[in-house]
Specification:
Blueprint: H1 13-18, E1 24-26, H2 31-43, E2 48-50, E3 72-75, E4 80-84, H3 88-101, E5 106-110, E6 113-115, H4 119-129, E7 132-139, H5 144-155, E8 160-165, H6 175-181, H7 186-199
Parallel strand pairs: 1-2, 4-5, 4-7, 7-8
Antiparallel strand pairs: 1-6, 3-5
Helix pairs in contact: 3-7, 4-5
Length: 202
């Protein structure tokens, strides 16, 4: 989402690319992770789709080697799992701080590789928490949320809420304003977390 409008944005690319046989799909969270992912891709055999945005974004991950297909645990908790990718990871970090201040323990995981998906990390998290929120700057149809839900449905079904765009094109505007307009801000992640926790089987 940004100032060049719908013709210069794509909110469907993760879904399109992950359906291609043999394609690896990576959505890093910040500059450090994008740089590390690029180095890992250079050593990787096979096609890779690396997704990153233009807006200036906080750098919050450490400079470390990037392991394709291995999720990054940013915070350990027991009440709610939040899975995020790309720009929404930093926003999920902010949301987690709000939830923790309310006494809600957050298991926050950066799913920087959409394909191959780290099913083991997803299942380990939802088995602890019993519910999940996914957050992505992408259509909720075919994106990270669908991938997480597919894993959960097969092996450990839990209530899930999705934070993402909903079957719509983007439009022109400042990224921060558009994120709020499309519900991709910390407040919406917090609301989704509280909603899904109310659905959790006691």
């Amino acid at each position: 989402l940004g100032e060049d409008g719908a013709t210069h944005q794509i909110l469907e690319d993760i879904g399109l690319m992950k359906m291609l046989p043999g394609m690896t799909v990576i959505v890093p969270a910040d500059y450090n992770q994008t740089k590390a992912a690029t180095k890992a891709i250079a050593k990787h055999k096979g096609p890779v789709y690396l997704r990153f945005g233009r807006p200036v974004w906080p750098i919050f991950t450490n400079e470390e080697d990037f392991e394709i297909g291995k999720a990054q645990i940013l915070n350990e908790g027991k009440d709610i799992s939040i899975f995020a990718c790309g720009h929404l990871v930093w926003i999920a970090v902010e949301a987690a701080k709000i939830l923790e201040a309310k006494g809600i323990s957050v298991d926050l995981i950066n799913i920087h590789t959409i394909k191959p998906l780290d099913n083991e990390a997803i299942l380990a998290s939802i088995k602890k928490t019993g519910c999940a929120v996914t957050a992505e700057e992408h259509n909720i149809i075919g994106g990270l949320g669908d991938s997480v839900a597919q894993t959960a449905a097969k092996d450990f079904p839990v209530p899930i809420e999705y934070v993402g765009t909903n079957d719509t094109f983007g439009e022109s505007g400042k990224p921060a304003d558009l994120l709020v307009k499309y519900g991709l801000d910390a407040a919406h992640i917090v609301a989704a977390a509280e909603k899904v926790m109310a659905r959790k089987i006691k």
